[in-house]
Design goal:
The chain has about 180 residues and is of the alpha/beta class. Helices cover about 25% and strands about 20% of the residues.
């Protein structure tokens, strides 16, 4: 389990232009449950999950701080803004061209989610649900909604049913 990133630690300060490149904001509030979603504008699986992410925000957005991260340089700052315009999400989306968030959280694919507590501990990482059990395979009916089930467990103060389910998606490419 990783601990909270110290945003202001010497040598680890993330440049403000990264945080402002898509949304003008982006610092994740450490006093609440956070849902970090790694997305890629050119990943069909990321695009597939946009409606589900909107629903999750509609249901849980008042209780959970959601932030999208677009990693790497495959998408420019302008492409990041176009993505947000074309696929409006009700939460901040941050461009991470230097891969600070990717490296810190250990994200490997898009979409991949991290559910993090107020102390910075990763409570859950991985897939949103089981709709896409492997690349090229899509279930007609979603059986397990890992992220939603975990959010409900948090709300009900129960142990999380899942801590890690491998995410299926587009690999995050390191330049």
């Amino acid at each position: 389990m990783k601990t909270r990133f110290n945003w202001f630690a010497p040598g680890l300060l993330i440049p403000m232009w990264i945080l402002a490149s898509c949304s003008g904001a982006g610092r994740i509030n450490s006093s609440e449950i956070e849902l970090i979603v790694f997305l890629a504008p050119d990943c069909p699986i990321s695009l597939y999950y946009i409606p589900e992410l909107r629903k999750i925000h509609e249901t849980w957005g008042h209780q959970v701080k959601m932030t999208g991260i677009i990693p790497g340089t495959a998408a420019s700052g302008e492409e990041c803004r176009q993505f947000k315009d074309q696929h409006p999400l009700p939460f901040d989306v941050i461009h991470d061209p230097q891969m600070e968030y990717v490296n810190y959280w250990g994200a490997e694919v898009t979409p991949e989610v991290m559910l993090v507590d107020g102390g910075g501990q990763i409570l859950y990482r991985g897939a949103i649900d089981d709709a896409l059990p492997e690349l090229g395979v899509k279930r007609s009916v979603v059986g397990r909604r890992y992220l939603r089930e975990n959010l409900l467990a948090l709300k009900e103060k129960r142990p999380l049913p899942y801590t890690q389910i491998p995410a299926v998606g587009c690999f995050i490419e390191f330049d």
